[in-house]
Design goal:
There is one protein chain. This protein is α+β, with helices and mostly antiparallel strands. The protein is about 40% helix and about 30% strand. It contains two helices and eight strands. The strands form two sheets. It has a four-stranded antiparallel sheet with strand order 1-8-3-6. It has a four-stranded antiparallel sheet with strand order 2-7-4-5, with no helix packed on it. A hairpin with a 2-residue loop joins strand 4 and strand 5. Helix 1 packs across helix 2.
Length: about 150
């Protein structure tokens, strides 16, 4: 975050906090109600606070909620991209490239599978480290999960 954007964010947070405090004061005094006022031509201070401060605060909360939902969607997409479920026919081979430093975990659900020359049987799992090129060869029809994981910390 640049210095300018950090200042803008801090200013926005101060303004939102001020709006929240003013709205909460109106609410605590019993003045929170629907935004239908007896006299639109001459609204009271509480009426104006409800329109502007409550509106600003609610919009801010909605923006935060939308940002959180977008972040969760991005995380879900990243997880889907890093977990693969695969079925191979007997003798079928696939290659998979891991980014250097990442780990893989393979769980064989059914069948028999060779990974870089090592054989897995039904129910077996394998943690793979220090490899970038993975070769999967099915000895029989095989179903497995491949987890592409960040390095262990």
């Amino acid at each position: 975050m640049t210095e300018v954007s950090a200042r803008r964010a801090a200013t926005r947070e101060r303004l939102i906090d001020a709006a929240r405090r003013k709205y909460e004061a109106v609410r605590e005094s019993g003045g929170d109600r629907s935004m239908v006022f007896p006299d639109w031509a001459a609204p009271s201070a509480n009426d104006r606070s409800l329109v502007y401060d409550k509106g600003a605060y609610v919009m801010h909360r909605l923006r935060l909620l939308i940002e959180r939902i977008e972040r969760l969607e991005e995380e879900k997409k990243a997880m889907r991209e890093l977990i693969r479920a695969t079925v191979l026919a007997p003798g079928e081979r696939i290659d998979y490239r891991l980014v250097s430093g990442r780990l893989a975990y393979v769980q064989l659900i059914r069948g028999q599978l060779e990974i870089n020359g090592k054989t897995l049987n039904i129910g077996d799992g394998a943690k793979i480290a220090n490899e970038t090129d993975l070769q999967f060869l099915a000895g029989e029809e095989s179903e497995f999960l491949l987890f592409d994981l960040p390095p262990a910390t």
